[in-house]
């Protein structure tokens, strides 16, 4: 346990309470009871008792309540975005964009859960026509959700909203950097669903998350770094608890020779520097076709140099939320410069805690930390490539595979399909994240499983298959009472049905 100080942004436990502070000013935002493993277990027990009631409400009952929750969030948007700004440091405008996406996801999940997960008849095979077949997706029970601080609403709600719509109850462990935002979201839910603790929160540091993994939840949805994701998986493996892992990224943007350069510049600056670059699907690497490289770089530097950094109302981005991350950003810039890279904008002087100003690095070797590791700061590496195909090769060399972007007038979708990642935006950046109809998640070190969309609903449900006899079997394969003659007929039927190559 650490003792109480008010170093900006550094959460502490003081007398059994988690103290959250503003990352720029150190202003205390709130105090939250730090949950012990016994507290976490008790929250999960309560959620389990609530699960039968929530599940029995059915799709219509849950839809109505989830839509009321989404309305409560929408109607108090100003309060929410002010809190996001104060506790996480993000400008209010960016908090509005984040919250809007989260609210849209709740509405979509509420309205589509029945069509995606509800009971349906499915066709039976010709070999077993005497049975009818039914499929439905049932809730797991209690889902544990562990969230990060960088998108403290959009990211956890991507799991919470879909898990609730699927009929689960949820115990949510917000990041130690953003407990007040987590509490605010849960309180709004409790106002519209006061009957039972369908959605509850437990507060604390990493140990609280570890306790949630071991608490007997029926599924654990984790969003955070790859390193912590591995610990979460190891803890969940002890009880064979299924895991959804939404982890880090090192997303690339490809700028083809025929790209709309102004559009590509705007997307690279926003995609790379929104939220001070603290975005799992933020653009960190840009690969630009030789023919347009110089023009792109010049416009990129001009645009990024105009960004305003600070806590003021007109700032484009704010502080680095987690003070420890500043060392990583500094190390990546220093390593890039030591290894022959140049700062076309910013550089080591741009690191002015708690802020980092826009930094654009060029001529950085492909094995430098700034190209290989997640930087999580307002930095971009920009690399000249002969053509977009080489860009795809380099983009795919990462061990991460979360999102990405392609700018091309003629080959956008074709290039997007070649990127080894879960999502790609064509002629935009990060546009997939707020799209409720599309699944969100990565490959490789970026994790597995999906939030959002129909796949995001299925992620929080278990398929239940039912077959029912509807007539006598002509060929009773599944019985010791079958005769040798019937077995011969089954063999003949297999050859008839499946014996042709096409
Ligand atoms: P961390 O991995 O540090 O923490 C994530 C969550 O896990 C926090 O709530 C944290 O608690 C908790 N935690 C820490 N240790 C443990 C443990 N041993 N067992 C269980 N839970 C634990 O990530 P950050 O919060 O720093 O978030 C940034 C990372 O998240 C980046 O890598 C980013 O790319 C990734 N991310 C991925 C997204 C995606 O959708 N793929 C979206 C957003 C972010 P505490 O904070 O209290 O330590």
From TrEMBL:
One of its GO terms (biological process) is aldehyde metabolic process. Residues 18-466 form the Aldehyde dehydrogenase domain. It comes from the Bacteria. PROSITE patterns: ALDEHYDE_DEHYDR_GLU. Keywords: Oxidoreductase. GO terms for molecular function: oxidoreductase activity, acting on the aldehyde or oxo group of donors, NAD or NADP as acceptor. Coiled coil: none annotated. InterPro entries: Ald_DH/histidinol_DH, Ald_DH_C, Ald_DH_CS_GLU, Ald_DH_N, Aldehyde_DH_dom, Aldehyde_DH_NAD(P). The keyword RNA-binding does not apply. The active site is at 246, 280. Belongs to the aldehyde dehydrogenase family. This is Aldehyde dehydrogenase. It comes from Rugosimonospora africana.
């Amino acid at each position: 346990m650490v003792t109480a100080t008010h170093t900006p942004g550094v959460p502490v436990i003081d007398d059994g309470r988690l103290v959250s502070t503003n990352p720029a000013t150190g202003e205390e935002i709130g105090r939250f009871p730090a949950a012990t493993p016994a507290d976490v277990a008790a929250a999960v027990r309560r959620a389990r008792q609530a699960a039968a009631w929530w599940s029995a409400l059915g799709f219509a009952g849950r839809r109505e309540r989830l839509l009321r929750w989404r309305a409560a969030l929408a109607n108090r948007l100003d309060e929410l975005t002010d809190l996001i700004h104060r506790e996480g440091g993000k400008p209010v405008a960016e908090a509005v964009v984040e919250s809007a996406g989260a609210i849209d996801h709740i509405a979509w999940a509420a309205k589509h859960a029945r069509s995606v997960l509800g009971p349906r008849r499915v066709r039976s095979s010709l070999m077993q026509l005497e049975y009818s077949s039914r499929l439905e997706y049932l809730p797991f029970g209690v889902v544990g959700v562990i969230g990060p601080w960088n998108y403290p609403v959009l990211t956890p709600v991507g799991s919470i909203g879909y898990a609730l719509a699927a009929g689960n109850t949820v115990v949510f462990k917000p990041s130690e950097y953003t407990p007040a935002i987590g509490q605010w979201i849960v309180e709004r839910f409790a106002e519209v669903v006061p009957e039972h603790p369908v959605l509850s929160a437990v507060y604390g540091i990493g140990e609280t998350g570890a306790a949630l993994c071991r608490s007997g939840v029926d599924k654990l949805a984790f969003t955070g770094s790859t390193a912590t994701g591995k610990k979460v998986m190891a803890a969940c493996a002890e009880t064979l608890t299924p895991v959804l892992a939404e982890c880090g990224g090192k997303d690339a943007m490809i700028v083809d020779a025929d790209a709309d350069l102004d559009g590509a510049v705007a997307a690279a600056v926003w995609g790379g520097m929104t939220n001070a670059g603290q975005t799992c699907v933020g653009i960190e690497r840009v690969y630009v076709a030789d023919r347009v490289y110089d023009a792109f770089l010049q416009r990129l530097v001009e645009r990024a140099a105009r960004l305003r950094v600070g806590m003021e109302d007109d700032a484009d981005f704010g502080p680095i939320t987690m003070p420890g991350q500043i060392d990583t950003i500094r190390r990546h810039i220093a390593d890039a410069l030591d290894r022959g890279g140049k700062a076309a904008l910013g550089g080591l002087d741009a690191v002015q805690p708690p802020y980092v100003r826009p930094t654009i690095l060029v001529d950085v070797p492909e094995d430098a930390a700034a190209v290989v590791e997640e930087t999580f700061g307002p930095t971009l590496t920009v690399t000249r490539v002969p053509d977009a195909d080489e860009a795809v090769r380099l983009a795919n060399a990462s061990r991460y595979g979360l999102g990405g972007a392609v700018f091309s007038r003629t080959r956008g979708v074709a290039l997007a399909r070649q990127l080894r990642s879960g999502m790609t935006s064509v002629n935009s950046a990060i546009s997939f994240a707020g799209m409720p109809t599309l699944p969100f998640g990565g490959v490789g070190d970026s994790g597995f499983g999906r939030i959002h969309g129909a796949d995001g609903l299925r992620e929080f449900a278990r398929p239940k298959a039912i077959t029912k006899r509807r007539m006598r079997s002509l060929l009773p394969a599944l019985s010791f009472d079958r005769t040798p003659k019937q077995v011969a007929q089954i063999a003949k039927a297999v050859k008839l049905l499946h014996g042709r190559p096409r």
